[in-house]
Design brief:
The complex is a heterodimer of chains A (115) and B (115). Chain A is an all-beta fold. Chain A is 0% helix and 50% strand. Chain A is globular and about 40 Å long. Chain B is globular, with a radius of gyration of 14 Å. Classes of the chains: A mainly beta (115), B mainly beta (115).
């Protein structure tokens, strides 16, 4: 059982470069999420997709875009990377947004450094 | 936005000791989740709670959904070295639509071994 798979695991970018973080889940979940984790800040929601075909902004969406490619895949794009986007990025999935289906499963993370 | 206050921020454990941590909020939650994160890994779900007053165990871990629905507690009995890591609480306010369905995370409790 792969669960939630993220690629790449590590990445170094120069300021202004662009890149796409990939995420795929094999649990047939409807909802998918992108979080960033910074020291002392916990997990902050960047964007989410409650169901295939929909995407919405989370708490810290500026500088990012997302695409829900299909039910399995949800990508995060940085169009012009900035040092403030140095962080660890986690993708997560859940069966759905309802309270009875709250359990989220996380990928192993992408450690991004912008220099 | 909504916040969860997780305490303590950090603690040192000695093998065999019991450990307690909690999360509180000014808002009422419908779901509480507890996660553990090892260094370099994504958060892993430990326990999910869905009813006020619910007490659920997972091995040496026991979590409770507070009666007021504004707090949750996690206890680890007879700690062992592999218990070190960061423990996160997460809550869902409820509702099936929009951002109400998103999880809100505490900032974590870091468990370390006493020198």
């Amino acid at each position: 059982n792969a669960g939630v798979t993220q690629t790449p695991k590590f990445q170094v970018l120069k300021t202004g470069q662009s890149m796409t973080l990939q995420c795929a889940q094999d649990m047939n979940h409807n909802s998918m999420y992108w979080y960033r984790q910074d020291p002392g800040m916990g997990l902050r929601l960047i964007y989410y997709s409650a169901s295939e075909g929909t995407t919405d902004k989370g708490e810290v969406p500026n500088g990012y875009n997302v695409s829900r490619l299909n039910k399995r895949e949800f990508s995060l794009r940085l169009e012009s990377a900035a040092p403030s986007q140095t962080s660890v990025y986690f993708c997560a999935s859940r069966r759905g947004q309802g309270a009875s289906r709250a359990e989220a499963f996380f990928g192993q993370g992408t450690r991004l450094t912008v220099v | 936005g909504q916040q969860l206050n997780q305490s303590p921020q950090s603690m040192f454990i000695q093998e065999g000791e019991d450990v307690s941590m909690n999360c509180t909020s000014s808002s009422i939650f419908n779901t509480w989740l507890w996660y553990k994160q090892d260094p370099g890994e994504g958060p892993v779900l430990l326990i999910a709670l869905y009813k006020a007053g619910e007490l659920t165990s997972n091995g040496r871990l026991t979590a409770q959904f507070g009666i007021t629905r504004k707090d949750s507690f996690l206890n680890i009995s007879a700690s062992i070295p592999s218990d070190v890591g960061i423990y996160f609480c997460a809550g869902q306010l409820g509702g099936y639509g929009g951002s109400q369905g998103n999880l809100i995370f505490g900032k974590g409790t870091k468990l370390s071994v006493k020198p």
